Amino acid sequence: MAIRKLTEYPAEVLGIVGKPVEKFDDELRVLCDDMFETMYDAEGVGLAAPQIGLNLRLFVMDCEGVKLIAANPQIIAADGEQTGQEGCLSVGKVPAVVTRPMKATLRAQDEKGEWFEREAEGYAARAFLHETDHCDGMLFIEHLPKLRCDMLVKKFLKEKKLR
Ligand code: NI
Fold first, then answer.
1. Measuring CA to CA, which of 31, 60, 66, 79 is 20 to 30 A from 3?
2. What pTM, to 2 d.p., does this model score?
3. What domains lie within the chain, and their CATH numbers?
4. How far is the CA of 81 from the centre of ligand 1 (A)?
């Protein structure tokens, strides 16, 4: 296992739709192990492949008891509403309040290529939505009003410079 380098805003790979995962082989399993290790090291609850520079529809998460690998993820149902803090390892974990559905159902393939569906609520549902967005080339800051998005980006870039 290895910790991979995190890709940060404004890297191009974070803004493009990922390619489908087609091979469910040992290479993919090693990649997923590395993604988990990278996520835990950064104290995140989810990590998508574009966040380590790979243009791939794949994420891992471990959030409120929901630990899974999702290849080719889709949100097939969403219901209700929640408003709460969210952050992203690719935007330096600068927090922002985002409104999302309260419940979400994820359809994806596991590391063996088996399709599964999983429903989650609250923070785990938020992670489903946030990570699936990454696979579609979308960052959580794009859910914010333009002015708040600009402010957050400015704050992040300033902090990045000081590192
Ligand atoms: Ni993120």
1. 66
2. 0.97
3. 12-162 (3.90.45.10)
4. 20
